């Protein structure tokens, strides 16, 4: 088993006033040679956007871009004419494919929005851009692991990669196993709140742990905890 530990305080940080962003991997002005990616996981940004502010329209290509609001509402517009509101308990994916331009703005003029922006290298390049968004009831991840992004699950949003994203909200002292979905994949564990022990490593709020070359993760909740699991190919095509 191999592990790489990213403590919350070791992340890159950029505060632009309207945007307060923490980077688990190299991004923008933050460059760390040992934090370029974890397998096909390229970006995990923990963003807070001030009321009425956001990212103006900008282009992407050949990247799977997942947005997970943690609180507040995020407005998405793109070059296909789509105009959507993404709320807490929603998960959105945009397959940039051959090229798309989009904007992400705080939909509120009075409240900040907090969300995770995650980039994954695609399995197939230059596909037709696509968009999908679904809502997931919070009770469906209470003391269980709920898959929200997958290439093979009609209940999740589809991703152009052999990758699975799952959420869990665990009571204190719960122990649960997570079998890795595909041989050759690893899992990046990101703690949204609380404290857990994953295969013997203690993780606290906003810590990240990449685990590879194992078949199962054992997760023990040291406190009431919320987790994001990103099950991802370790080899890039």
Structural features, described:
With 237 residues, the chain is an all-beta fold. The chain folds into 2 domains: 12-135, Jelly Rolls, CATH 2.60.120; 138-233, Jelly Rolls (Sandwich). The protein has no helices and 22 strands. The protein has a 7-stranded mixed sheet, with no helix packed on it. Strands 2-3-4-11-6-9-12 form a 7-stranded antiparallel sheet, with no helix packed on it. A hairpin with a 4-residue loop joins strand 7 and strand 8 (83-87). It is globular and about 45 Å long. 38% of the residues are buried. The model has no long low-confidence stretch (mean pLDDT 95).
What's the mean pLDDT score? 95
Portion in beta strands: over 45%
Counted by DSSP, the helix tally is: 0
Report the uncertain regions. Answer: none
CATH topology of the largest domain: Jelly Rolls
DSSP helix fraction: under 10%
The first-to-last residue Cα distance is 22 Å
Walk across the major sheet and give the strand order. Answer: 1-20-17-22-15-13-14
Counted beta strands: 22
Key attributes of the depicted protein:
237 residues; mainly beta; Jelly Rolls; seven-stranded mixed sheet; seven-stranded antiparallel sheet; 22 strands; 0% helix
Helix-strand blueprint:
Blueprint: E1 2-6, E2 12-15, E3 19-23, E4 41-49, E5 54-60, E6 64-71, E7 73-78, E8 83-87, E9 90-95, E10 100-106, E11 113-120, E12 130-135, E13 145-150, E14 157-158, E15 164-170, E16 175-179, E17 185-193, E18 196-198, E19 201-203, E20 208-212, E21 216-221, E22 225-233
Parallel strand pairs: 13-14
Antiparallel strand pairs: 1-20, 2-3, 3-4, 4-11, 5-10, 6-9, 6-11, 7-8, 7-10, 9-12, 13-15, 15-22, 16-21, 17-20, 17-22, 18-19, 18-21
């Amino acid at each position: 088993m191999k592990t790489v530990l990213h403590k919350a305080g070791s992340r890159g940080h950029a505060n632009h006033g309207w945007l307060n962003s923490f980077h688990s991997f190299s991004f923008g002005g933050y460059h760390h040679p040992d934090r370029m990616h974890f397998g096909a996981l390229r970006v995990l940004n923990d963003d807070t956007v001030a009321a009425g502010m956001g990212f103006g329209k900008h282009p992407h290509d050949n990247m799977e871009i997942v947005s997970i609001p943690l609180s507040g509402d995020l407005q998405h517009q793109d070059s296909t004419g789509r105009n959507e509101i993404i709320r807490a308990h929603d998960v959105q994916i945009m397959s940039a494919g051959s090229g798309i331009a989009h904007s992400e703005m705080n939909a509120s003029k009075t409240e900040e929005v907090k969300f995770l922006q995650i980039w994954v290298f695609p399995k197939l390049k230059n596909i037709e851009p696509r968009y999908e968004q679904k809502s997931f009831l919070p009770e469906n991840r209470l003391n269980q692991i709920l898959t929200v992004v997958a290439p093979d699950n009609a209940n999740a949003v589809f991703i152009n990669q052999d990758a699975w994203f799952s959420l869990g909200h665990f009571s204190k002292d719960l122990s649960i196993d997570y079998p890795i979905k595909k041989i050759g994949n690893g899992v990046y564990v990101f703690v949204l709140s609380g404290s857990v022990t994953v295969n013997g490593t203690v993780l606290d709020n906003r810590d990240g742990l990449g685990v590879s070359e194992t078949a199962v993760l054992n997760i023990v909740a040291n406190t009431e905890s919320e987790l994001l699991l990103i099950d991802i190919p370790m080899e890039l095509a």
